[in-house]
Every structure is written in C-alpha cells, then in structure tokens.
Amino acid sequence: MLKNRIIPCLDVKDGRVVKGINFVELKDAGDPVEQAKIYSDGGADEICFLDITASNENRETIIDIVRKTAKECFVPLTVGGGVRTIQNITDLLLAGADKVSINTAAVKNVDFVKEASKKFGSQCIVVAVDAKKVSDNKWEVFTHGGRNKTGIDAVEFAKKVEENGAGEILLTSMDKDGTKSGYDVDLLKSITNNTNIPVIASGGVGTLDHLYDGIVKGGASAVLAASIFHYGKYKIKDAKEYLNSKNVSVRL
Amino acid sequence: MNVTIVDYQSGNISSVINSFTEVAKGKVNLEVTSDVNKIKSCDKIVLPGQGSFKSCVDSLNQIKGLVDTLKEFAIINKKPLLGICVGLQMFADIGYEEAETKGLGWISGKVSKIDNQKGKFKLPHIGWNEIEIQKESKIFKDIKNKSHMYFVHSYEFIPEDKSVISAITNYSSKIVCSVERDNLFGTQFHPEKSDKIGLKVIDNFLKL
Fold first, then answer.
1. A250: in domain
2. Which tens digit of pLDDT belongs to each residue from A74-108?
3. Catalytic residue numbers of B, as ranges
4. Which residues from chain B sit within 8 angstroms of residue A76, using beta carbons?
5. Does domain B2-207 have CATH number 3.40.640.10?
6. What does A59-108 look like in DSSP terms, one character per residue?
7. Interface predicted TM-score (ipTM)
8. Residues 179-208 of B with CB under 8 A from A
C-alpha cells in the first residue's frame, strides 16, 4: 500500500536557512545541508527547499546547497523558488535535485509546464499553486508569495497544469499559511477531487491533527510542513507515529 | 572492480551517480560514460532511465553501437546489469508511452499505463510503497520483505514469464517492482532515492 508522505520544508535565503530547526545539537543553525541531513536521518519521506533569495546574483548558492545535500541525503529532494527557465531546471537537476517546483512561471505561461515535463519527465515537475479564498468554495491563484492576484480560478488552474504534464501539485493556502490553524481542507478537497495527480498539502499546520486532516479529510497524498518541525515541537517520527496510531499509513 | 553507469542523456541521473558513489567509496571504480569501449570492458553496468519509454529508447539508439554492446554484455555474456525505472522497462519488447515503441526485447513483455481504475488511484504512482518479495533475489540479500522503496512512475512492466518477477508492490493492482534473470536485474523503484534500504540494494548489486 502506498504510504502518505511527510515532507519537511526549509526556507533558504542567500544560502542560509531562515525558517529552520532550532535544535541544540545543530552546529550551525543556518546550514541547510546539516538541517536536511537531520530530517533525512529522522525519517522524512522527502525534503523540500524553498529558495526565497530575492536577487538573481545569489541563485548560484542554492545550486551549491543542492549539490552538497544530494551527496548526503538519499531521499527525494524537491527545490522551488525562482524556477523560470528550462536552464534553471537543468541546473537544479544536474546539481542533484529530483524534482523542481514551478510557481509564478507556470501561472504566466502554462506551456512552460508542458515544455518542462516533456523534456525532463512529469516525475520531476511539481507545480506550486498558491490559492486564496475569494468566496464560498471559490479560490483564486496568487503569485509572488500571495501578493499578486491573477484572476485565475484555482481548481481550473490545477486541472490545466495536470493536462500540461505536471506530476504533482503543491497546494498552499495563502489564507492559512503561517497561522498554525490547520490546512484549508475545503480547498484541498476541491483540488484533490478534481485532479488525478497527487496533491501535497501546505500552509497552516500547527498540530499533528492538522496533518491527519490534510490526508484523511482533504485527500492529500503528502503533507508539507515547516514550523512544527523546525522549532523542535515535533520530530518527523512523532508525526508518523501519531498518524499510524490513527490508522493513516505511513513509512515507519 | 569497474562499474559503469550508462550516461545516454536519459534525463536526470545525478541521484544515481550520488548514491552509487556513496556505496562504492573506496571499494569499486565507478565510471559514468556513454563510451562503448569502456562499457564493453567493465564488470557491471547500471542502466538508469527517466522520462518516457520512447525518449529513453530513442536516446539509447542515438549512441552508435550502444544497444548491441549492452546486449552482448548482459544477454550473451550474462554479465551483471541493473536497470532502474525506465532502465528496467526497456528490457521489454514493446512500450506504449507517448507512442508504440520497440524496446530492447531482453525479457518478453510489454510496458503499459497502470490501470488506475478510472481515476480511483492517482497517477503517477509516487511515494513509498512496500515490496513483496516473490523469490530469492541476490539484490535483496538481507532486505526484509515489506521494506519500503521509493517509486515514481505511471507505466508498468508486464513480463510474459512471471518467473522473472522478484518482487511486486500493491497499488491499484499488483505492480511488478523488480525482475531478475541470471545476472540481469531491474527495479521499478529507485534504490538511489530509497534511503538506507535502497543503498543496501545498491551494495548488494556491487557485491555480486
């Protein structure tokens, strides 16, 4: 039976972790490679890096981090943030990433998703959809970290990226992100019911119960979380044992 | 011992290189190449494969003499070869991804889309699933039945001769996840991404 995945996400800026683990055992709390290794040794099913570096000059640093991480972590590694061109994808994959996550570039031009999945295979193309609720059961796609409205319906967009070869959708609720009040389960349900590719739930996790809701109520194939793991509140193992105790199948 | 990872522009093989490098450290000489002469003279071959069946077969065929060399190595001389993901799928006679495409024909059978029961199961089949070992296999030495391996694929290999199947996994149906015949090995899952247990599979192959 296929297991539900738990994916810790690390936000990286200019080569340093900005939202990361606060464990005492860390020699250098800002080192993404060291943090990724802790997660991978702790049983993370995948690792996700989100590069929030603003300037283009510092793009090289994420490549270097991916290169070092890939030599030490032997679970899938997804990298997102600033992926705009085929060359960006090539660089990340050559450095050792297994998947890339495309956000703004997919909204601007869905053909980019098609081109990328044709060239590299759907298995490594994740489309990150940032959605905000606009009315009852209606969500709109936003870009640039939730700042820019696009007028595009989130469910329609999800279907479109699936048609264009996306292998997975990383769905973030902009209303819930950072609130620790749980995923937007209705949004999740709308997307998972209307697409046939795996959906990774993101945005809003504050307790282990929220992970359960994302999978069982929302229909997500994987759950992504940042802060509940970073600050040492829970370890990956705690999350898995909790889910297992509630009959949600995970890799123990 | 010299082990070759065949680099035939089949997409992303960085992870394969990284994990084999990790396991081979100080024990095995590892080379990543498409040089037919080097491939001929090595002791073991790893044949990775990402993207579609068609794109992988097309890429293999673009390198002059490569297909014949691989066949001579693995089928005629029966030297160890491990195919990973589409690398395994290409063992088949025929594949149906993108377009009907002729495979290597080393193990009779076809590669077709996983029946996801009209959308009841998501595709691709992505994530960790348990392997159910069907027969004793050299690459599963010291690996427990029901170990978790990492999968990412939408197509499955259906061999005619079921005796080649060394493990299956349960998704929308029972999916072939590894084959073994003589010294020919293939895994549908990605040992290079399957954590420590995956590295063990690689170690077993390198120790053959």
1. no
2. 999 999 998 999 999 999 999 999 999 999 999 99
3. 85, 190, 192
4. 150, 152, 193
5. no
6. HHHHHHHHHHHHTT--S-EEEESS--SHHHHHHHHHHT-SEEEE-HHHHH
7. 0.93
8. 192-196, 198-199
